[in-house]
Design brief:
Length: 127
Amino acid sequence: MEGRAVNKYVSQSAKKIKPLLDQIRGKKVEQVLNKLHFMPQKAARITENVLHSAVSNILNKDDGGDINPEELVIKLAFVNKGPTGRNSLRIRPRAMGRAYFIRKHSCHLTIEVSLEKNEKDNIGKKE
């Protein structure tokens, strides 16, 4: 059983969030939430909110009453590039009278959690 949460159009570049996701992938949810809460980065706050949402999604499913939140593991955590915002058309002056657009990067963050025992049971089994 899996729970998934997606946060779209996060106003931070994917390059800044990816190293944080590499640290938490495959770890227990309880440990990760403790780490993220005390990290100073903006990416940590965003990831913490998405992780809380993924945990609540798995607990609110039909079979969610049987799940112990301490057994949950982060199965998937990835970030995709979103649109580069140019809707405000802010311009930065450059040399020789040129003008460059100010690029506001965004991304889409996806986190999927599942039960720990399901991960161990599926390793090495052939169907």
